[in-house]
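Slides due. Your pick:
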Amino acid sequence: MQKARDAAGKGEDVEAVLDDVSMELTTVMSTLQFQDITSQQIEGAHAVLAALGNGLGKLVGYLGIAAAK
């Protein structure tokens, strides 16, 4: 909004400034959405790997194999 006020005070095209700001905000929102989706995918993969690790640990215990140190 400050850019629009500055543009109005200088006789610049306020609508063009607002369009530019709107495009910048859209870009920011898209970037945040992408990061959120990526974060969710990483969390999902982490959960699968943790469950796999727990399952392998139980299997090693059942088989009586000593864990490597």
